[in-house]
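>> received
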Amino acid sequence: MNKYEKWYKQITDNAKNRVLECYTERHHIVPVALGGADTKDNLVNLTAREHFICHWLLTKFTTGKNRYKMINALRMMRAENPNQQRYETNITSRVYENLKEEYAMLQSTTRRGKGNGFYGKTHTEEARHAISEKNKGRKQPLHEKQNQITAITGRKRKPFSEEWKQKMSEAHQGEKNHRYGVEVSEETRAKISAKMKGRKQSDEEKARRSASNLGKTKPKKLCPHCNQMIAVNTYTRWHGNNCKHKHIL
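>> returned
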């Protein structure tokens, strides 16, 4: 029994032989997540501070998967709950950082592969249809959109490695491409064309596209009709088969 377990035992043993008239919270001496029963001999009344400290101590002397469960329990102790007095106990920034980092790492290792509850499962056609029907016509609430924007603002992803780019390229080539063999009908082409006609880019969109292309050199292609080197992104629109010099002898 290490010092943390001794301190835990002292707090819970002391709580068995007293009556408190202040705000208290019920605490399972052996947590339910660790097999503890919801019985009188396994329950004690603790002050909010004692309750918080006990859950902190549990993260100190439990090991393996049990420690992961206790870290999650301690993390939830700080969650907001309008029906419960929450804890004024201060956690230093270092302790908070260590707690969150370890919890994130444990989540990553225990929820991947076979540890993921959906591992090896697929939605039935009925479930897919139900999800589709539920989301039809749904408009994203403004606060939800703002939260997403806030979450990614200022974030910079690491550049893709050449190996990753190669794998992605190979994974979408030929028959592996979801659009392989699919032909766009004239009706669909007409709809796309009508949708884009008259569309004007906002100044913000222009600035964003300009910034993303700044410093990039686009490859060029020789037009056989006007004998000019043209950037490939505009080649098919004004040159090649659409070149105005095509029919000039």
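>> The mean pLDDT is 83.
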